[in-house]
């Protein structure tokens, strides 16, 4: 009986850990469109378009634009929520971002509105 209870408890914790872990690679984001997930990968290039109407900040994953695997966008109105310039601070960092994956011109992306959606995993100039 004790072995059965122990086995059930272990199974319960494994199931809980698996369901709580919705972390995916930037390379796999295209398969999670319209889903709330955590996307992890390296920021290869960034760009703040201060002259555009909505003033977007682009965080391009894995490869510089136009070859990125995934893009995170911070709209100009949301930049005030960040205590840093995202295009400077996050470039060349390994990050995990949380939000809903959407498609724009058949490319996966995510809109970021708060710095709490971004977790820096490590810093490196050689992440690939």
Task: Describe the structure in your own words.
With 128 residues, this protein is of the alpha+beta class. It has a single domain (23-123), classed as Beta Barrel (OB fold (Dihydrolipoamide Acetyltransferase, E2P)). The protein is 18% helix and 37% strand. It has helices spanning 2-20, 86-89, and strands at residues 23-25, 36-48, 57-61, 71-74, 93-100, 102-104, 107-111, 118-123. Strands 1, 2, 3, 4, 5, 6, 7 and 8 form an eight-stranded mixed beta sheet that branches. A hairpin with a 2-residue loop joins strand 6 and strand 7 (107-111). The protein starts with a helix and ends in a 5-residue tail after the last strand.
Low-confidence stretches: 4-20
**H/E order of the elements?**
HEEEEHEEEE
Number of helices: 2
> Based on CA inertia axes, which overall geometry fits?
globular
Distance between the terminal alpha carbons, to the nearest Å? 50 Å
Q: Main β-sheet, in a few words?
A: 8 strands, mixed
**Count of individual domains:** 1
Percent of sequence in beta strands: 35-45%
- Over all CA atoms, what is the radius of gyration? 18 Å
Helix content: 10-25%
CATH superfamily: Nucleic acid-binding proteins
- CATH C-level: Mainly Beta
Number of strands: 8
Structural class: alpha+beta
Which fold name fills CATH's third level, the topology? OB fold (Dihydrolipoamide Acetyltransferase, E2P)
Round the mean pLDDT to the nearest integer and report it.
87
**Shape-level CATH architecture:** Beta Barrel
Descriptive tags:
8 strands; alpha+beta; 128 residues; OB fold (Dihydrolipoamide Acetyltransferase, E2P)
């Amino acid at each position: 009986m004790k072995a059965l209870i122990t086995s059930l408890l272990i199974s319960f914790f494994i199931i809980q850990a698996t369901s709580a872990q919705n972390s995916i690679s930037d390379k796999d984001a295209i398969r999670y469109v319209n889903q709330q997930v955590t996307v992890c990968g390296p920021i290869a290039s960034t760009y703040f378009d201060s002259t555009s109407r909505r003033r977007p900040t682009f965080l391009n994953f894995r490869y510089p634009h136009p070859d990125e695997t995934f893009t995170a966008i911070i709209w100009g109105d949301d930049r005030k929520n960040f205590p840093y310039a995202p295009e400077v601070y996050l470039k060349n960092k390994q990050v995990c971002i949380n939000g809903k994956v959407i498609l724009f011109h058949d490319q996966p992306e995510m809109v970021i509105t708060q710095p709490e959606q971004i977790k820096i995993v490590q810093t490196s100039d050689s992440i690939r």
